[in-house]
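Researcher: I'm preparing a figure for a lab meeting and need a structural model of a single chain. I don't have an experimental structure, so a prediction will have to do for now. The sequence is pasted below. Please return the structure as tokens so I can convert it later.
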Amino acid sequence: MSTLKNKIDFVALISVTRANGNGDPLNGNRPRTDLNGFGEISDVCIKRKIRNRMQDLGKPVFVQSEDRCSDGFGSLSERASATMKGIKDREEYARRACETWLDVRTFGQVFAFKDAKGLSVGVRGPVSIHQSSSISAVEIESIQITKSVNGEKRGKDESIASDRMGTKHFVRFGLYKVKGSINVQLAEKTGFSEEDASVVKECLRTLFVNDASSARPDGSMEVVKLFWWEHNCKDGQYSSAKVHRSVNIALKDPDTLPTCAGDYTISLEPLPGLEPEVIDGI
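Model: Understood. Here is the structure written out token by token.
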């Protein structure tokens, strides 16, 4: 595989329709918002979905969620020990981890486990992803739900057990902008290749395939557009900030509450010498 030679920037536009794109466990699992009411999806959430798609594509992944474990290991420590057994040199440990797992050479990883006997290894990955924010403030709706059976035995004075009641929260509609970059200098250190970059691109294009749940019904989360810039040099022809700002999104009617991606105008500010690949999501 050929190591990545030129810097890459990307922007993904994600729509959320009557779904909870990223619940906040410290706030009753309500969709995340900032103090001004704009929706948020954490970088950790996006990376989890990319890792899941890597697994779907048959790629080896170190940080596997419990419900998608494909190798039988019950923890990160067990997975690392089975592969890195006997390695005491930090550089060799990092090199082997990057060779073995795609997500390690993509996002990096800290290896610091009890059974490592004091060995602590940190890997910095070349792919960085920003916390995503919605273009407009979002409306959050909450509904009460009930179960048809009791999860616990009903008390003597209880007509309905308390655990039968619950609440679901969802965003009516939001268009979110996900920004990211791939650093060549770090790619050289982890062995991240041109082929790996293509896998990341495909994962972003198909981010919500096999991701349906009660909070995110099939079709409620969609990648609207993916913009992918490949520079002609290691450090980039423009800063990542300038590249990300070149995607302009504005409401067609500022006085109308958006209900779909079609309510926005999406345009690109020209960057001489740098044209993005514009990809429809799935």
